[in-house]
C-alpha cells in the first residue's frame, strides 16, 4: 500500500495536485504580529491621543464639508442630505468600532492590511493593502484639487482661465487643464511628511483647530440666517425660481419639493457619495506603530474623531440647506455663495480661510497613512523591498513617502475630483468590509497569541480547549440532527480548532449571502417591494439562511482574552457593517467598477510577479516548523489563527 501511495504521488497528475495545493497554501498564509528580525531602525513612538484625534478629524473634515455637501444637496438629496450624512456616519461608526478592536490587538503599522494578513491570509491582505493605496492616493489628489479650486474661486476664477488657455487637455476622462497648484501643494506636504511624524501632527493640529472654529461659525450663522421654509419647498417656490432665473441651467434638478425632493433613491445615492466624507478615521489605525499607547489611543482616537466629524457634517449640511434653497447652491463653492445669498458677503473670506485650513489638514491626513501602508507591505515582501527603507534620523518611511507623494501629485495634476470620488469609495468600503469580517472571525478563534505578555492566558486557554476537545472526541457521531445540535448548543465554553473552522466557514457563507441580498436590493428593489413572488421568495430564503447562520455563529464560544476594547453585539454589528458597506458598493456605476478592475489587474501583476515569491512568509515556510509548546516557550506566536 505504501508503494502504491508513493507511486501515485510521483505521477504527473499527483505532482500537479501537489503544486496546486502548495500554491493555494501560499495564498492563505498568515503572519504573526511580531517585529521583523533585522530591522534596526523602526518608526518612532511619538504620537499622543490628541495627535491621533487631530489626525482623524483633520483628514476627514475637508472636501466633504466644503465641496461635497453642496454637490450632493443640489443634485442628489436636497435638504435630506442630513439623512445621507447620518447613513454614511452609521456605516463609518460600525467600521470604526471594528478598527478600534483591531487597534488594541495589533498595535503596528498597516491598518486593515495587517488585520487581514493575521486573520484571513496573504492574498486577501494584498487586496486590502492595494485598495487602501488606491483610496489614499485618490483622496490626496481629490483634496488637492479642491484646495486649488478654492484658491481659484478667491481670484475670480482667473487662475483656471489662464491654465485652461495655456495648458488645456483634450483627453477623455482627464481634467480640462493641468493643475500646477495642486501639484506643488502635494509635493510641498510630501516634504513635510519626510521631516517626521511629530512635525506633521503639529501642523495638522494647527490647521484642524482653525477649521473647527470656522465650522462652528458656519453652523451658528446658518441657524441664525437660515429659513426653515427651505426644507418645505412647494411647487410655487419652483415656479418662482424658474421665472426669476435668466439661465435655467444654473438651477439644480428641482425634484418634487419637500424635505426629500428626490425620494428614497436620492437618499441612498447621496449616502453612497457622502460616505467619501467620512473617509479618514482609518488613518489613525495606520499610526499604531507610532502611537505612545496604541491600545488606548487608537480606540479613543477613532471614536472621538468620528463623533466630532458627524456633528460637523450634520451641522454644516443643515445650515447650508437652511440658508439657501438646494437648487440655488453653487456646487463649486457652496458655503461662500450661501453667505452671499443671505447678505453676509464678507463672511465668505472667513469661510475661505477655514476651507484652506481644512483642506490642508485633510490633505495631510490623506497623505500620512499612505506611505505607512506601503511600508508595511514592503516590509512583508509583498511590494518592492526598497519601499521599506526608514530614515535614520527622522524615523519615517522615506522612500514610501516620496513615491506615494509623487503618485498623488501626478493624479492631482491630471484628474478631476468628480471622477475620483466613487472610485475611492469602492476601495474604502471594501477594506471596511474586510476588517469587519476579520473581527467576526478572529473573536471566535483559539490560540490568539498576538502579544508576548498574553503567554500565560493562552497556555491556560489551550489546556482547557484540549481537554474539552478530547472529551468530545469520545462521543460517537449520531447523524445530521446531532451535528446541528452540536452547532447550535456547543459544549465548549472556550474556542476550539473545530469551532474556529465552523465560524470561518459560516462567515464566508454569510458574506456571499449578504452580497446576493444587496445585489437584489440595489438593482431590483421595485420587484421586491411590489411583492413579486419570485424575488420575494428568494429574499425570504436569503433572510432565513442569514438569520440561521448568524445564530450558529452567535452560539459558538468566544476567546476570553481581555482587551482594552471589544466590538459589542457580536456577530450582529460586524455583519451589519458588511451589509451596509456592500449595499453602498452596489450603488456605484459600471464605469467605476471597471476602473477599479484595472487597478486590481495592476496589483495582481505585482503580487503574482513579485510579492508571492519575495514574501517574508516564504522564507518562514522553508524553515523547520515550531511546535506549539516550543512557540510558547520561546514567546513565538502561533501562525495558525484559523
From TrEMBL:
Catalytic activity: L-ornithine(in) = L-ornithine(out); L-arginine(in) = L-arginine(out); L-lysine(in) = L-lysine(out)
Topology of this chain in the membrane: Multi-pass membrane protein
Cellular compartment(s): Cell membrane
Domain Cationic amino acid transporter C-terminal: 565-615
Bias type Polar residues, positions: 621-632
Primary location group: membrane
TM spans (from-to): 41-68, 80-102, 114-138, 177-197, 203-224, 302-329, 349-375, 396-417, 423-442, 502-522, 534-555, 567-586, 592-610
Keyword annotations from UniProtKB, A to Z: Amino-acid transport, Cell membrane, Glycoprotein, Membrane, Transmembrane, Transmembrane helix, Transport
GO CC term, one of those recorded: plasma membrane
Gene3D superfamilies on file: Amino acid/polyamine transporter I
InterPro entries from the UniProt entry: AA/rel_permease1, Cat_AA_permease, CAT_C
Signal peptide positions (record): none
Region entry Disordered, spans: 619-642
GO molecular function, one term: L-arginine transmembrane transporter activity
NCBIfam families in the cross-refs: 2A0303 (TIGR00906)
Similarity remark: Belongs to the amino acid-polyamine-organocation (APC) superfamily. Cationic amino acid transporter (CAT) (TC 2.A.3.3) family.
Protein known as: Cationic amino acid transporter C-terminal domain-containing protein
Amino acid at each position: 500500500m505504501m508503494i502504491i501511495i508513493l507511486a501515485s504521488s510521483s505521477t504527473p497528475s499527483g505532482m500537479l495536485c501537489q503544486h496546486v495545493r502548495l500554491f493555494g497554501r501560499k495564498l492563505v498564509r498568515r503572519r504573526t504580529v511580531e517585529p521583523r528580525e533585522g530591522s534596526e531602525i523602526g518608526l518612532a513612538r511619538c504620537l499622543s491621543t490628541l495627535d491621533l484625534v487631530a489626525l482623524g478629524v483633520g483628514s476627514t473634515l475637508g472636501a466633504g464639508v466644503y465641496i461635497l455637501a453642496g454637490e450632493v444637496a443640489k443634485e442628489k438629496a436636497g435638504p435630506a442630505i442630513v439623512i445621507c450624512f447620518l447613513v454614511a456616519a452609521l456605516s463609518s461608526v460600525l467600521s470604526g468600532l471594528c478598527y478600534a478592536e483591531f487597534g488594541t490587538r495589533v498595535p503596528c503599522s498597516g491598518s486593515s492590511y495587517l488585520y487581514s494578513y493575521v486573520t484571513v491570509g496573504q492574498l486577501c491582505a494584498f487586496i486590502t493593502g492595494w485598495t487602501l493605496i488606491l483610496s489614499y492616493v485618490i483622496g490626496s489628489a481629490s483634496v488637492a484639487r479642491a484646495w486649488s479650486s478654492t484658491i481659484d474661486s478667491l481670484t475670480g476664477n482667473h487662475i483656471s482661465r489662464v491654465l485652461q488657455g495655456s495648458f488645456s487637455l483634450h483627453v477623455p476622462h482627464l481634467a480640462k487643464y493641468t493643475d500646477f497648484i495642486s501639484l506643488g501643494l502635494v509635493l510641498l506636504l510630501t516634504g513635510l511628511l519626510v521631516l517626521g511624524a511629530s512635525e506633521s501632527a503639529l501642523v495638522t493640529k494647527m490647521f484642524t483647530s482653525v477649521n473647527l472654529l470656522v465650522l462652528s461659525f458656519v453652523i451658528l450663522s446658518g441657524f441664525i440666517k437660515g429659513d426653515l421654509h427651505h426644507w418645505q419647498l412647494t411647487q410655487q417656490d419652483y415656479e418662482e425660481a424658474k421665472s426669476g432665473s435668466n439661465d435655467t441651467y444654473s438651477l439644480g434638478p428641482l425634484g418634487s419639493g419637500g424635505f426629500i425632493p428626490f425620494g428614497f433613491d436620492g437618499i441612498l445615492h447621496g449616502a453612497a457619495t457622502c460616505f467619501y466624507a467620512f473617509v479618514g478615521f482609518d488613518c489613525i489605525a495606520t499610526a499604531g506603530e507610532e502611537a505612545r499607547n496604541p491600545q488606548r489611543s487608537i480606540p479613543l482616537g477613532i471614536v472621538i474623531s468620528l463623533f466630532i466629524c458627524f456633528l460637523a457634517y450634520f451641522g454644516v449640511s443643515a445650515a447650508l440647506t437652511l440658508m439657501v434653497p438646494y437648487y440655488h447652491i453653487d456646487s463649486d463653492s457652496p458655503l461662500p455663495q450661501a453667505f452671499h445669498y443671505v447678505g453676509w458677503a464678507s463672511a465668505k473670506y472667513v469661510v475661505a480661510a477655514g476651507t484652506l485650513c481644512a483642506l490642508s489638514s485633510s490633505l495631510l491626513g490623506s497623505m500620512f497613512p499612505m506611505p505607512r501602508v506601503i511600508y508595511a507591505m514592503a516590509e512583508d515582501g509583498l511590494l518592492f523591498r526598497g519601499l521599506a527603507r526608514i530614515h535614520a534620523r527622522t524615523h519615517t518611511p522615506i522612500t514610501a513617502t516620496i513615491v506615494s507623494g509623487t503618485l498623488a501629485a501626478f493624479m492631482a495634476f491630471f484628474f478631476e475630483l468628480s471622477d475620483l470620488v466613487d472610485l475611492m469609495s469602492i476601495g474604502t468600503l471594501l477594506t471596511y468590509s474586510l476588517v469587519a469580517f476579520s473581527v467576526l472571525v478572529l473573536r471566535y478563534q483559539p490560540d490568539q497569541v498576538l502579544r508576548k505578555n498574553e503567554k500565560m492566558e493562552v497556555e491556560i486557554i489551550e489546556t482547557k480547549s484540549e481537554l474539552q476537545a478530547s472529551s468530545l472526541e469520545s462521543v460517537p457521531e449520531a447523524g445530521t440532527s446531532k451535528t446541528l445540535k452540536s452547532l447550535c448548543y456547543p459544549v465548549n465554553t472556550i474556542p476550539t480548532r473545530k469551532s474556529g473552522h465552523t465560524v470561518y466557514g459560516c462567515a464566508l457563507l454569510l458574506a456571499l449571502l449578504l452580497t446576493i441580498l444587496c445585489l437584489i436590493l440595489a438593482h431590483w428593489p421595485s420587484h421586491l417591494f411590489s411583492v413579486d413572488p419570485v424575488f420575494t421568495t428568494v429574499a425570504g430564503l436569503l433572510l432565513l439562511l442569514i438569520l440561521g447562520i448568524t445564530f450558529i455563529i452567535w452560539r459558538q464560544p468566544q476567546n476570553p482574552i481581555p482587551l482594552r476594547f471589544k466590538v459589542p453585539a457580536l456577530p450582529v454589528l460586524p455583519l451589519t457593517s458588511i451589509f451596509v458597506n456592500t449595499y453602498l458598493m452596489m450603488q456605484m456605476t459600471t464605469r467605476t467598477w471597471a476602473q477599479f478592475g484595472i487597478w486590481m489587474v495592476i496589483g495582481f501583476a505585482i503580487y503574482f510577479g513579485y510579492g508571492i515569491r519575495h514574501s517574508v512568509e516564504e522564507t518562514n515556510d522553508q524553515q523547520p516548523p515550531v511546535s506549539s509548546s516550543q512557540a510558547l516557550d520561546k514567546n513565538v506566536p502561533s501562525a495558525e489563527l484559523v
